[in-house]
Amino acid sequence: MTTIAPVSTAIAPKAPGILRCALSAAHMELRGYFRTSDTVFFTFLFPIMMLGIFGVAFESQGDIGTQPDGTGGISMAAYYLPGMVAAGILLSGLQNLAIDIAREKSEGWLRRLGGTPLSPVSYFLGKAGQILVTSLLQLALLLAFAHFALGVELPTDPALWLRFSWIFVLGIVTMTLLGIALSALPRSSRSATAVVIPIVLILQFVSGVYLQFSMLPEWLQNVAGIFPLKWLAQGMRSVFLPDHFASQEIGGSWDLGLVALNLGIWLVIGLVVSLLTFRWQRRS
To answer: Is residue 163 over pLDDT 90?
Structure first.
């Protein structure tokens, strides 16, 4: 009598879904982020430190933007706050990602990940999740420090916080994609910092973060207007500064439509360049 072997009905385990992998990747990214002291300092605490320095150093100059009737003036700390919010998004998104991904690619981590079931979509969603969480934490600390330590009055109008929300989200997505795109430029992990940080510093100086934008010559304001940080900082100024400060902008108004348009254009540029240049390993 012939014995028939039983047919196995076990179902092969399915590969984890994209979202599940992305959440796991984001958790690992966050753990690695806060274990790296230099990354935490230069992308997380740096805007808070700079706001404190500017707020204390220029406190003796009195209020800025006082109108002829003596009203509407704000402290230097309040004036620099929107620029530091924008700089925090730039540092967390563009600078951090560009250096981090270039390092992982140069040291072979991405090549190893390419041999696993992890998809590039999950990998980048994990990176984006880390950027979002760290940016929100940084923002909370920055606003708390500005309000409680430096006496900056924060907006009370819900419409301004709604405006802040879409500018913040659009800025985060744009800077994240640009960081991924810029990571293709450094040729090694050693050169990543030397390539990325000068670009970031120059953008901050010409975009109204460390210098009053109205103090820059007109030609330099026009050059800064090509890049996204200028528009992100302008959008943040429209949230945190009194309305009469809009007259100091190039167009004499906040131009929120142009803020959205320019950030949207750079978002698309970052997405296209990322899709064209990303590889699990660098081409020789």
So the answer is: yes
Terminal Cα-to-Cα distance of the chain (whole angstroms): 64
CA distances from 262 to 69, 168, 212, 224, 241 (A): 36, 14, 21, 12, 21
What is the model's pLDDT at position 104?
Answer: 82
Determine contact, residues 77/146, Cβ cutoff 8 Å. Answer: yes
Give the model's pLDDT for residue 58: 81
Tell me which residue of 225, 218, 224 sits closest to 261, measured CA to CA.
225
DSSP character at residue 8: P
- Is the pLDDT reported for residue 260 higher than 50? yes
Q: What is the torsional sign of CA 143, 43, 209, 178?
A: negative
- The average pLDDT across 21-35 equals 81
State the helix-helix crossing angle for 96-106 and 158-182, rounded to 10 degrees. 30
Radius of gyration of the chain (CA): 22
Rounded distance between C-alpha atoms, residue 250 and residue 233, angstroms: 13
Which tokens go with 38?
A: 């230099």
